[in-house]
Every structure is written in C-alpha cells, then in structure tokens.
Amino acid sequence: MPDAEEAVAVCYVVKLDDKNLGNLGAFSSCDGLGCEFVMEQREEGGNNGMVWQLPTRIKYSNIKLSRPVTEASSQITKWFAGMAGGIERKTATIEARTLDGTVIASWSLEGVVPVRWSGPQLSPDSPKVATETLELAHHGFLSPAKKG
Fold this sequence. Notes:
Blueprint (H helix, E strand, L loop, with lengths): L10 E6 L6 E5 L1 E3 L3 E9 L7 E10 L2 E6 L4 H10 L7 E8 L5 E16 L12 E7 L2 E2 L7
Antiparallel strand pairs: 1-2, 1-7, 3-6, 4-5, 6-9, 7-8, 8-9, 8-10
Organism: Amycolatopsis japonica
GO molecular function: structural molecule activity
Pfam family, one: Phage_T4_gp19
C-alpha cells in the first residue's frame, strides 16, 4: 500500500504571473526540474593528497513539458506572439497534481522565458494523438512562502 506522503503525479499545471496568459493548462509530462553547482578544481601546491572542489555558480536546466493538444494550447502561441515586441521574463509555478486535482508538490520559478514550442505532426497516414512540447528556461527557484 502506498505511503500517504508519496508523490504520484498525474499532471503538471503551469501558471504564469501574467493577467493575459495566466494558466497554460495541464501537461502530462514534466522533465528537467533540477539544478547543479558548477565545480572548479584547484590543486594546492605541496599537497598531493587532494584537489579542492570549489562551487562557482548554480546552473538550472531547461524544463520540457508535453501534452496532447487542448484548447489551452492557444495560450502558448499567444505567449510566443506577445514576445515579438520584446522579451519579458515571467514568474511561473508548476504544480504536480493527482487525478482528483490535489496539489502534491509545486515549484515556483523566476525569470521564466519560453525557449521552444513544438506542435503536433499532423498526417492522415498516422492516426496518433496530436501532442505538443513546451520548453522553458528560468533563473532559479523562488523560496516557498512562509506560513503563519
């Protein structure tokens, strides 16, 4: 029997801090949530027993979200079209939700920009589900708000 604390997500809902765009809808997969420290190695003269590992900067990977095409797909093309006049970074939240809509985890991202959108491959020869993929870049995670 699964533990009540396990995170079994069914969908990932993406929300932007933009009144005109707001909710980008639910995605069936989310890949790339993560970060890493870039390490610099330094050798110390006269100390042959070790090499210093120094963290230099933190690097955030791009996030790829995929789903079948829905009515919410127009929000993504609207976002890209709005960037033609200049790039404006947004704050976004990705919520992992269960089938009944319960939020089991969320990540707030700062400095979000869309990197790439791939629409469906439409072909009468292949009756597959029309899917789309959205790739986002960001400047890091926002600290969760303190409760109380």
